[in-house]
Every structure is written in C-alpha cells, then in structure tokens.
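Troubleshooting log. The previous structure file for this entry was overwritten by mistake, so regenerating from the original sequence record. Sequence copied from the archived sheet and checked twice against the printout by T.R.
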Amino acid sequence: MTAIAIDAVAVPPATRQVLAMRPGLLNLRPSIIPGFGVTFGITLTLLSVVVLIPLSAVFIRAAGLGWQGFIEVALSERALRAYRLSFGAAAVAALINAVFGMLTAWVLVRYRFFGRRIVSALVDLPFALPTAVAGIALTALYAPNGWIGRVLTPLGIDIAFTQLGVVIALVFVGLPFVVRTVEPVLADLGVDVEEAAASLGASRAQTFARVVLPAVAPALLTGFALAFARGVGEYGSVIFIAGNMPYRTEIAPLLIVVQLEQYNVAGATAIAVTMLVASFILLLITNLLQGWQRRRMAA
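Regenerated output below.
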C-alpha cells in the first residue's frame, strides 16, 4: 500500500493517540522506488538462488550418509584436527588483525603523510591479489631457504610448513577487512571529540578507552567477524605455506578437496556442512554482540 503524508495538525485526537504509539507513521512519504513487497520479494529470490538453494543441496547430499556415516566422516580424528586448525588459526589471525587493523586505520585517518595513498593501496592488495600468488610469496619468504626463513630457522623459529605459517597467511588475507570497516567510522568520529575529552582532563589512554574505542567497537567487531569468516574458508594462500600434513597442518577446506579427489562427494559435503553450521553459529554470536554493543551505546 502506498504511504500517504499525514498532517499531524489536522489529525483528530483519537487518531493522534494511535499515531503516538507508532511515531514512524507520522513521517511516511510517498516513494518513487518500489515498495516493501517488491524489494523484499526480489531480495528473497536472489538469496534463494545464490545462497539457500546451493546450501540446501549440500545438506541434502550429506544427509544421504545417514547419522552413522555422517559422524564417521565429519567427526573423525583427522577432521577434528582440521577443524581445530582452521577455526583456531582463523580466530587468532582475526584477533591480530583487529589490533593492527585498528592501528592502521587510525594512521590512515588521523595523519597526512607522504606516501599515504600508496599505503592505503597496499592495504587493499590482498583483495586483488590471487590467493595462490599470496601463498607462493609467503612460502618463498618464510621457507627455511627464504629471505626471512634463513634468518629465523637457525634461531629455532620455523614458520613455513607449521601452524604458525597458517596464522601468518590468514593475517595477510584478513587485514583489509578490519581496516576498511573501521576506517569510515573513525573518519566520522572527528578529532573534535578527542579534543573535547582532552580539554576535560582525560589522558590519551582514557580518551582512547572511553571515547574512541566504544565508538568504533561495533565496526571493529564487524571487521573481526569478516576476517574470521575469510580465514575459516581460506584455501589458496594457506596450502602452500602449511605443508598440508594430516593431523598437523591440514586445514578443513583442503580435507574437503582430498575427499573430492577420492570421489567421496558425500564425505566432502559432510565436512562442508559441519564447517557451515559452526561458522554460522559463530557469526550469529558475533552479530548478537554487535547488536548488544549498539544498544548499550544508544542507552
């Protein structure tokens, strides 16, 4: 139904009481774009074709194994080790990116310096760089005979073909998500807010902890969730530096590929369903935390 502009002055008292319970109705105006029904239908259709139908096919194929077969594949010792590495490394990398992504966004927003645009472009490089190229580059750097690896290996620090190498690869691909999510929030915050806090006697640490951090916390959580989600499903940049040793450095996406190479499509879908459900639960918790943070700030 087309919304109609309402003159609040001409509304009878009884109707005014009803509208007072729904204040948004007083601001309704005709719109030149399609209404809720059309846009909502297009949204559901697009989500069904792009997301829901393919994911439903994965669930249906995995259901063909039965509960016993599903548990034997999806919860085997090898699969559990792969889940632990994928989710654990993604969480650690997302935490690292949350800290350094916040610092990077702060520098790009608050300071003007020579080469700033180059630094900003470098932040976006993992977006455009093929993941296989990133994996090869990281392996060449951190391998025992690489530029960095040849220095660290004599010190007893091995990065390539270890779980630490997986974390470094996920930090590389996940950093832009945090920077680009926090950057516009910091830009909108403005320097005057920090100056006001300083004029009231707040130290730099107090200004950051009580003024800046609460304002950017929802965006920071969003960047963390995006970096985490990217890390869980990352494949190309990890397989080169991980070494892909079963029970040690084998990630869950690689285990899915291994099942497909063995023509065990049902087993691959079982592992995919397990990762999908776990990722959805973790992202849902993150979204709930974001909503709670926004409500707390608005209160």
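Residues 66-298 form a domain with the MetI-like fold fold (CATH 1.10.3720.10). Archived copy saved in two places this time.
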